[in-house]
Specification:
With 285 residues, this protein is mainly α. Helix content is 48%, strand content 2%. It has helices at residues 16-22, 39-42, 64-80, 114-127, 132-148, 158-173, 180-186, 192-205, 214-230, 242-255, 258-267, and strands at 53-55, 237-239. The protein has a two-stranded antiparallel ribbon with strand order 1-2. The longest helix has 17 residues, at 64-80. The protein is globular and about 50 Å long.
Length: 285
């Protein structure tokens, strides 16, 4: 495939997940399938002379709750609207199970719902205090794997595909390297040897390409925002505080120089915790 047709590498190529999500909405409104959202979160807030309200999710600091929920929905559409069942042994769940309890073989042939996917992802983001940027990078790696390795994400491999993408994203973006042994403490049935091999083969299947350009990152951010809006996930507004205004100003100065933009995003990212968010009632359950 030409570079310009690969969404994870080229900013003008359409993201796969958004195209697959649109396959489900022909002739119907997506709002009919939206998740329940508290009316308080949908209430309009207007800026005044004394208070400015901004969307809590920005390109440099995407809302971790909404972005991870959107990531789960994006993965769901990859699974539901897959073209076939092409896969690789290293990402097959029945060969490398993620949980200690034995699963019913029938479960491997049923598509998981977005809530189940979110429940798998959330502990990893909680454990390592990963922000929304990691969720976006995870999705970029996931779609890059689909094209580079010529696989489909399905019921039997989605957990390993997602785990590998989160593992690589955490190391690519994190200032402090997250060691694989810590992942094993969260995913208790995965051995360190298994995780090391997954990481090694995942990087190989990605052709050692972990780079994500600012323009590709921005495209995935806005497409995830679109997916969130399609499914009724809330846009949360909050008053602009002095600390956040200073962060935005600093990031703006950094981003005037493209070489410093990625550094700025890393430096000023926040580490929101799922359980501490005021709008936690929007979490999929």
């Amino acid at each position: 495939m030409d570079l310009e047709q690969i969404p994870s590498d080229h900013p003008s190529a359409s993201t796969i997940f958004l195209k697959k999500s649109r396959m489900d909405v022909r002739g119907k409104t997506m709002k009919n399938n939206s998740y329940h959202v508290s009316p308080d979160l949908l209430r309009e807030k207007h800026s005044s002379c004394s208070t400015i309200f901004l969307d809590e999710s920005t390109l440099s600091e995407p809302s971790v709750i909404i972005t991870v929920q959107s990531l789960a929905i994006a993965i769901y559409y990859h699974i539901k609207n897959r073209d076939s069942n092409k896969t690789k042994d290293i990402i097959e769940e029945y060969l490398y199970p993620s949980y200690t309890e034995e699963m019913d073989p029938e479960e491997y042939y049923h598509n998981p719902d977005p809530e189940s996917i979110y429940s798998f992802i959330r502990p990893l983001f909680n454990a390592f205090c990963l922000t929304g940027q990691f969720a976006i990078t995870t999705l970029v790696y996931l779609e890059r794997l689909v094209i580079y390795a010529r696989i489909d994400i399905g019921p039997t491999n989605w957990k390993r595909v997602v785990l590998g993408a989160i593992l690589l994203a955490s190391k690519y973006l994190h200032d402090l390297i997250v060691q694989n042994v810590f992942f094993c403490r969260v995913m208790k049935n995965i051995t360190l040897k298994d995780l090391n091999e997954l990481e090694r083969q995942y990087i190989y299947l990605l052709q050692f390409n972990l780079y994500v350009s600012a323009s590709v990152y921005a495209k995935y951010y806005f497409d995830l925002q679109t997916l969130a809006g399609d499914h009724g996930l809330p846009i949360v507004f909050a008053p602009l505080r002095k600390e956040r205004a200073q962060k935005l100003e600093a990031i703006s100065r950094y981003c005037e120089n493209p070489n410093l933009c990625r550094v700025a995003i890393k430096k000023f990212s926040s580490c929101d915790n799922f359980t501490d968010m005021q709008h936690a009632n929007a979490i999929l359950s």
